[in-house]
Design brief:
disordered C terminus; 0% strand; 3 helices; mainly alpha
Length: 118
Amino acid sequence: MSEGIVPLRRRGEKRTSLDRVDVAAVQLLASGRATSLQAARGEVILADMRAQRDQMTVVLADVRSREATGDPQIDDANVNLITAINYGIVQIDVFIARAQVFLAEIAQSGLTQPGAPE
Protein backbone atom coordinates (compact mmCIF):
# COMPACT_ATOMS: atom_id res chain seq x y z
CA MET A 1 0.00 0.00 0.00
CA SER A 2 2.70 2.50 0.84
CA GLU A 3 5.85 3.15 -1.12
CA GLY A 4 7.74 4.80 1.68
CA ILE A 5 7.75 5.63 5.31
CA VAL A 6 6.21 8.91 6.42
CA PRO A 7 8.07 10.06 9.53
CA LEU A 8 5.87 11.32 12.33
CA ARG A 9 6.77 14.54 14.12
CA ARG A 10 6.26 15.36 17.75
CA ARG A 11 4.06 18.30 18.60
CA GLY A 12 6.01 21.51 18.53
CA GLU A 13 8.70 20.19 16.21
CA LYS A 14 9.42 22.37 13.22
CA ARG A 15 7.66 21.17 10.06
CA THR A 16 8.91 21.53 6.53
CA SER A 17 6.95 21.95 3.32
CA LEU A 18 7.57 18.29 2.59
CA ASP A 19 6.01 17.36 5.92
CA ARG A 20 2.87 19.25 4.89
CA VAL A 21 2.83 17.39 1.57
CA ASP A 22 3.24 14.05 3.34
CA VAL A 23 0.43 14.78 5.81
CA ALA A 24 -1.93 15.74 2.99
CA ALA A 25 -0.80 12.74 0.92
CA VAL A 26 -1.40 10.31 3.77
CA GLN A 27 -4.89 11.76 4.20
CA LEU A 28 -5.61 11.18 0.49
CA LEU A 29 -4.27 7.65 0.73
CA ALA A 30 -6.18 6.84 3.92
CA SER A 31 -9.44 8.16 2.46
CA GLY A 32 -9.00 6.02 -0.65
CA ARG A 33 -8.59 8.99 -2.98
CA ALA A 34 -5.12 7.82 -4.06
CA THR A 35 -3.78 4.42 -5.01
CA SER A 36 -0.30 4.86 -3.56
CA LEU A 37 1.67 7.24 -1.40
CA GLN A 38 3.68 8.31 -4.44
CA ALA A 39 0.51 9.11 -6.39
CA ALA A 40 -0.95 10.96 -3.41
CA ARG A 41 2.18 13.09 -3.08
CA GLY A 42 1.98 13.88 -6.79
CA GLU A 43 -1.66 14.92 -6.46
CA VAL A 44 -0.91 17.20 -3.50
CA ILE A 45 1.99 18.86 -5.30
CA LEU A 46 -0.09 19.25 -8.47
CA ALA A 47 -2.90 20.90 -6.50
CA ASP A 48 -0.38 23.27 -4.90
CA MET A 49 1.04 24.24 -8.29
CA ARG A 50 -2.45 24.89 -9.66
CA ALA A 51 -3.27 27.09 -6.66
CA GLN A 52 -0.05 29.06 -7.12
CA ARG A 53 -0.81 29.49 -10.81
CA ASP A 54 -4.27 30.81 -9.94
CA GLN A 55 -2.77 33.29 -7.49
CA MET A 56 -0.28 34.53 -10.06
CA THR A 57 -3.05 34.91 -12.64
CA VAL A 58 -4.97 37.14 -10.22
CA VAL A 59 -1.89 39.28 -9.60
CA LEU A 60 -1.26 39.49 -13.35
CA ALA A 61 -4.80 40.68 -14.00
CA ASP A 62 -4.40 43.31 -11.29
CA VAL A 63 -1.12 44.65 -12.67
CA ARG A 64 -2.46 44.64 -16.24
CA SER A 65 -5.52 46.61 -15.18
CA ARG A 66 -3.43 49.49 -13.85
CA GLU A 67 -3.38 52.58 -15.98
CA ALA A 68 -0.14 54.26 -16.94
CA THR A 69 1.02 56.66 -14.24
CA GLY A 70 3.08 58.94 -16.43
CA ASP A 71 6.13 58.14 -14.31
CA PRO A 72 8.51 56.23 -16.60
CA GLN A 73 10.11 54.29 -13.73
CA ILE A 74 6.79 53.06 -12.34
CA ASP A 75 5.41 52.26 -15.79
CA ASP A 76 8.61 50.38 -16.72
CA ALA A 77 8.46 48.49 -13.41
CA ASN A 78 4.87 47.45 -14.16
CA VAL A 79 5.84 46.25 -17.65
CA ASN A 80 8.76 44.28 -16.18
CA LEU A 81 6.46 42.85 -13.51
CA ILE A 82 3.98 41.71 -16.15
CA THR A 83 6.80 40.03 -18.07
CA ALA A 84 8.10 38.30 -14.95
CA ILE A 85 4.65 37.09 -13.91
CA ASN A 86 3.98 35.75 -17.42
CA TYR A 87 7.29 33.89 -17.31
CA GLY A 88 6.42 32.46 -13.89
CA ILE A 89 3.02 31.27 -15.12
CA VAL A 90 4.64 29.57 -18.11
CA GLN A 91 7.12 27.83 -15.81
CA ILE A 92 4.33 26.62 -13.54
CA ASP A 93 2.45 25.34 -16.60
CA VAL A 94 5.56 23.33 -17.55
CA PHE A 95 5.76 21.86 -14.04
CA ILE A 96 2.03 21.05 -14.09
CA ALA A 97 2.42 19.25 -17.42
CA ARG A 98 5.37 17.27 -16.04
CA ALA A 99 3.42 16.38 -12.91
CA GLN A 100 0.50 15.16 -15.01
CA VAL A 101 2.85 12.93 -17.03
CA PHE A 102 4.38 11.67 -13.78
CA LEU A 103 0.95 10.80 -12.37
CA ALA A 104 -0.05 9.08 -15.62
CA GLU A 105 3.13 7.00 -15.46
CA ILE A 106 2.37 6.05 -11.86
CA ALA A 107 -1.13 4.99 -12.85
CA GLN A 108 0.22 3.02 -15.81
CA SER A 109 2.89 1.28 -13.74
CA GLY A 110 0.25 0.25 -11.21
CA LEU A 111 -1.57 -1.62 -13.97
CA THR A 112 1.51 -3.47 -15.17
CA GLN A 113 2.80 -4.70 -11.81
CA PRO A 114 2.62 -8.46 -11.31
CA GLY A 115 -0.64 -9.42 -9.67
CA ALA A 116 -2.28 -6.06 -10.41
CA PRO A 117 -5.68 -6.15 -12.10
CA GLU A 118 -5.69 -5.24 -15.76
